[in-house]
């Protein structure tokens, strides 16, 4: 009889330990589910912010940044290379200036005129 009682108590104790472990596991599972939900919400907010940023023009984006961010943005944003059209326009302008200088040299007996070269502005694309 005592042996049966002892076995019953041991079995009951094991059962209680199992229930306690099960409760701890359920609690951990709930915490993990909450973390997953929080991460999903954070991810969704990030996606929304990225969509908004993609819709803003780059210059507007630069204006909305703090001074430190603007410096970083300007430092790490590579300049756009000139387009084929801009390169051709620049070369044509250079050729015209050279021809004009040669014409002026002939008129003045070989002396170079003291005129300032006009600076050309590159068009932004």
Automatic annotation (TrEMBL):
Ranges of biased composition (kind: Low complexity): 25-34, 50-59
Origin superkingdom: Eukaryota
Basic residues bias (residue ranges): 111-125
Compositional bias ranges of the Basic and acidic residues kind: 1-24, 60-71
Region spans: Disordered: 1-34, 50-125
Protein name as it appears in the record: Uncharacterized protein
